[in-house]
Write a structure and sequence with these properties.
By secondary structure, the chain is α+β, with helices and mostly antiparallel strands. It has 6 helices and 9 strands, in the order βαααββαβββαβαββ. The longest helix is centred in the first third of the chain and has 13 residues. The two termini are about 25 Å apart.
């Protein structure tokens, strides 16, 4: 069932799923074939984000099996690792305007539990994401590590287009992708 976050339990289950998909908890083979998540959020982070916009989740038997975090510019100072991404939006243009001149939503992170991948859950969750937010925002935007080929391919399938690539200070290459809803 695709829905939005509705309880503190949903947020706790997002954190559990996130933790199991951080690179520190995956083998190099899993990282290469299955993808990974980069940011480790706290419950407080998710509560603050959820107070602004509810994230989209997929549940089976009351268990969160996938999530798409919803983050706005109002959350930029809450998660320090993401501040450079928001600052980069000042310098990137899309269709002749700076990203920050648009009203946009950031896909704060996406994850589908192992065992649920390849079933169309991500596509269905993104359809709900668009339904929830396309009337308020011009597009969804996020950044994806170029090491995460599974995520890059999945986002391209959904309709995200690469609008910018850069190399982070640690040497990791990233792609900024955007899904235009206009």
């Amino acid at each position: 069932m695709i829905t939005i976050v509705q309880s503190p339990t949903d947020l706790q289950q997002i954190l559990q799923l996130q933790k199991s998909n951080l690179p520190a908890n995956l083998t190099p083979e899993e990282i290469a074939s299955q993808g990974f998540v980069t940011v480790s959020h706290t419950l407080t982070d998710l509560q603050k984000m959820d107070a602004i916009e509810h994230s989209v989740i997929a549940k089976e038997n009351d268990q969160v099996v996938a999530y798409l975090l919803a983050m706005t510019i109002h959350s930029q100072a809450d998660i320090p690792i993401l501040i450079p991404m928001f600052e980069l939006f000042n310098d990137i243009t899309y269709q002749g305007k700076r990203i920050n001149d648009y009203k946009y939503i950031v896909v704060g992170q996406v994850c589908v539990a192992q065992g649920y991948r390849g079933r169309g859950i991500l596509d269905s969750a993104y359809a709900e994401y668009k339904k929830q937010f396309s009337n308020k925002y011009s597009f969804a935007i996020t950044e994806i590590s170029l090491k995460n080929q599974r995520s890059l391919k999945a986002h391209a399938r959904i309709g995200f287009k690469t609008i910018h690539e850069y190399v982070a200070p640690n040497g990791e290459p990233w792609s900024i992708v955007l899904w235009n809803w206009e």
